[in-house]
Specification:
Its EC number is 1.8.1.4. The protein has 16 helices and 23 strands. It has helices spanning 21-25, 52-80, 105-116, 131-136, 138-155, 157-162, 174-198, 253-256, 273-284, 304-315, 420-434, 463-473, 488-492, 521-534, 538-541, 553-561; strands at residues 96-101, 121-125, 202-205, 208-212, 215-218, 222-231, 235-237, 250-252, 265-269, 288-293, 320-324, 326-332, 340-346, 352-358, 360-363, 367-369, 395-397, 403-409, 448-450, 455-460, 478-483, 499-504, 511-518. The two termini are 46 Å apart.
Amino acid sequence: MQASLSLSVSNPAAIPRSGHGFESSLPFPSKPVNLRFCGLRREALGFSSTSSSSSSSSSSISAYRSNRNAARSKKVWASLGGDNGSSSSAPKSFDYDLIIIGAGVGGHGAALHAVEKGLKTAIVEGDVVGGTCVNRGCVPSKALLAVSGRMRELQNEHHLKALGLQVSAASYDRQGVADHANNLATKIRSNLTNSMKALGVDILTGFGTVLGPQKVKVGKDTVVTAKDIIIATGSVPFVPKGIEVDGKTVITSDHALKLESIPDWIAIVGSGYIGLEFSDVYTALGSEVTFVEALDQLMPGFDPEIGKLAQRVLINPRKIDYHTGVFATKITPAKDGKPVTIELIDAKTKEPKETLEVDAALIATGRAPFTNGLGLENINVATQRGFIPVDERMRVIDSNGDRVPHLFCIGDANGKMMLAHAASAQGISVVEQLTGRDHVLNHLSIPAACFTHPEISMVGLTEPQAREKAELEGFEVAVAKTSFKANTKALAENEGEGLAKLIYRPDNGEILGVHIFGLHAADLIHEASNAIALGTRIQDLKLAVHAHPTLSEVLDELFKSAKVSF
């Protein structure tokens, strides 16, 4: 499947937990469980470059922590059954307490938490620090979206006139926009590198391969050992068969972020969050967009009601058309004066539909795990559709269904939830376990956002998913809504288009899901996600105080409008 590599969200039970793209990255556990929040208290560490006594003291503290953590970890592993199947070939002494393969956002988060916990830590990176998010994903895309947001404001004469503003025609410099995105990625990459070096994380350059229990090869010749290993190798753009990518006229998100051209007409294959964000950028900069979506509706991963409103605001008024329920079976790059051609077939009948001719095509069909060449065969681990199987504590599972001792996998490579901040949270959760605290991350409390204008954000279950769960478990579901048109701050900004939706249990006040479409939705969602994580009930949230006038009052009114039995 192309635009969505999962089944329709209207049937969430059929969607595999490990999938490609935003739609299938949302968690749909087969058995709902009550999990604890990743509420991690950061320890304060002192550093001094001038005082030898301080340095000595820090070394003593680190040694104490290392010994303490080793003892605690041994106890925890025994209680968790972590030593089953341990190999006699495992080393008796180690170069590091923890080695992390992959220096993306997930690996970085795990490394920083590990050194704060006193673990001697190394991180292996075969490409560049920052991984997909920093270099080819969320960071540079937000730079482009910042530009598209400014352009929309300057181009909206009606909006400006309502505010009493007059602005001459807005224009942009393509190379300047591209440089802004590249410079931001460079800056954030440098910040991540410096933060790890400052805290004493060893950065090992080279491709990491697992040689066996607690052994990693870095590059061609270097072999290092560690008591525990975390795989955090991330993902790459997924390109379906029949699509020829030339990097110029048929591109992936990796190429699009370089903004080497602004085509007059571009087809975007896939209407998930990647496709939506790029449609926002391209239309703001003057392109016409055609969506090609395999499912019967656009934005299949979002709550249906939010998706319909978002389509009315983000799609219909803009220079965007779309084809739903179709596959792009063959895409040929532009050549010798001929345009890009896209051959479409009916997604159900497989009958030919039509052939599109456009200036460029962006393949936004999700992402595939980057797990080839990791040496998983050396530890009897077989991937599932490329994903490394793990349990709820991110411990790797081998081909026999047994846990692999001292080996974990976080982030896109395990497919549980393909979001950068989810990878970081998983890494922190693993480090908590290694340092003596059993911990399970609640993926239903992890928010997600689409940075269009306006933004879309969500946490927990969609309404169809919640109702399916309620039918299976025998409880009632209620829905509350509030509009941005009732919010003073939104009206002051002349941005009243928006909706917040709460899905909950009226019998006990449990929040099942929250979905927001509107101004700064990505910032507003965290009050709801933290409430889910901490198990806070609606009856308590009704008593919370919010500053006036602020957008946060959208959530305040939402919780207050919910009808709870007690």
